[in-house]
Structure formats: C-alpha cells, structure tokens
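Example 3.2
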Amino acid sequence: MNGKISSGEMMVLSICFITALFPGITNNLILSISKNSSLLSIGLAIIVGLIPIFMIVFISKRLDTSLFDFLREKFGFFGNFLNVFLIVMAFITLSISSWLFVDFLISQFLTRNSYYSVSIFISLIVSYCVCKDFETLSRTAFVLFLISVITILISWICLSGYVELDNFKPFIDASYKNIMKSGFIILTFLSAPLIYMIDLRNKVQNKKGFERKLVLSSLISAFLLFGFIFLIIGIYGIDLSSMFIYPIYSLFKKIEILGFIERIENISTLVLIIPFFNMFCYLIYYMKENILKFFENKEKKINKKKERFLICFLSVVIPVNAIYFFTNYNLNTLIDICPYIFSTLFIVIIIIFIRCLFIKKSK
C-alpha cells in the first residue's frame, strides 16, 4: 500500500475499533455488574486507562517500522509467537463481534433470513472494500464515521428530553469490587485495541500528531460510551436497562422528531453498523498483511491474486465459522469472558514496552 492516510482517518479507524464492541458486550456487562455506578466505572476506567494508553504511545514513538517487523527483529522466535498471538486475538475479536452483529440483524430486522446468508453478504462487501487500496478503505471509513457522528448528535438531542434524574438514584448502588471490575472491562476495550493501530504510524501523512490522535480516539470513545450509558440509565432506569439485549437499539426506538416523525431506529442503527463494518475491514486488512509476511520471500513478492484470495477467505470463513459454533454449541459464556480474553493483550503491551525502554526514540 503506497497511499498515505491522514491522522484523522487513522483516529476514525481507532474509534470504530473501540466502539464496535460496545453494543453487544461492553454496555450489557457493565450495566449488569456496576448498575447505576456504571458512570463512575467509566470515569475510573478513563483515569486508570491512561497508563496502558501512554505505554502504547511510548511504544509507537520507538517504532521505525511495522510492529510485525519490530517484534521479529527485537524478539527473534519469541517475536513470531507474539505476532501469531496478535493475529489469533484479532481472529477471536472478529469471530465474537461477527456473531453479535449478525445475531442483532437477524433478531431485529431480518427474521426470515438465514444467519449464513446474511454473514456471507456482509463478508462479500468487506472483501470488496479491503481488496481496494488502504487509502480508499480509510477514506470510506472516515465518510461513514461522519454520517455516524451526525446520527449520534441527532439521537442524543432527541433523547435528552426523556431523561429522568431520579433514575440515577442511588448513584452508587454496587460494591466497590463490582465498580472496579466494571472499570477494568471498560479500560480493556478503551486501550487494548490501540496496539493494533500503531501499525498505521508509517502510513499517516503527518507522524507528529499520530500519538496524540491515538489518545484522543480513546477519550472520544469513552465520551460516547458515557453518553449512551447516561441515556440508557436516565431513560429506562437500571432495572429495565439490564433486561435489554441491545440497550442502545432500544434507545433509538424512542426517538421522535418534531413530534410526528417516529420509528427512525432503522436509520439510527447506522451508529451500530458503521463501527462494526470499519473494524471488520481493518482487522481483515491487518490479518492479511501480517499473515502474508510469514510467507513473504525477499526475492519474490506475493502476487495480488493470492492477496485477494486470502482477503476473501478470511472475510467469509471467520463469520461463517463463528455462526456455526455459536448456533451449535453453547458459547454465550465466551461473550461474558471476552473482556478478560482481550485483556491478555496487556501482557503483550507490557513486554513490548519493557523492550522499548532500551531503544532510542525513532524520528
């Protein structure tokens, strides 16, 4: 990929990655664990989360190549293990998010359709986008994100009138243990995904603002989470909120514009669709790039046909495989422990951070 992207486009991809798992995992877990204290948990996560975020920023400033090549060069065989681990974690993330997204579409909109047909349709669109150059992919993500931002602002304005402050009482209704547990889950999703984004440092036009945009993407994501949790609790109350499988979508059903325009939740669902789609595209791209590097020959580069085949293979196999296992086996507990699986990325971050302490800052 020879095309460069702007730091703003990189930030959009980061925000989409972080927020893509909010609807099906983060919101549900923190509401059930910390209840009204969820807002306090978010604040705690933002403060403590600055530690791993700045560790990732430190790592990014020490890289003068891709993370894959850095791990290979500095860690040797163990570096290959770390690269495989990152690819596997991307695979797990895509598998879980694919199941949640397809299940959401089937249960809310496409009840007469097959899980497999919907997943294959989505996979074909993703394959087409990723087969284009990365510059086109990032610009598409940026445009879609702008649409999502407009939708969010309109939704929040329309929903603000439904908020009842009494629903927040008592403000602290969970144990400190549960508040910290919930905070850890939020912290994980706000910071750990950024380790996948530092590969984009060599693709942005202005590297000087890259690390600042990484931090900003996490803070914006935290603000979005805070806003939606505030509306969910403020409108429905914690008891009713905890019963919803997709609480954000339930909010959209209450939107009414000018007193007569109702039932616009289908349009508002773009807020859920766009982050997932952008994350799906980026992780497929990430996996494709790093898998090919394992088989890359210095004398002969892998041709475009093989690249496209791998893109199509990953785009189709991952969601179809996820649907097969989730529908035939009871894997719902995997969703509950997903944050703890994802938190293992902190081990990789710490290992790389320690190694970077002995490396001079790259230009």
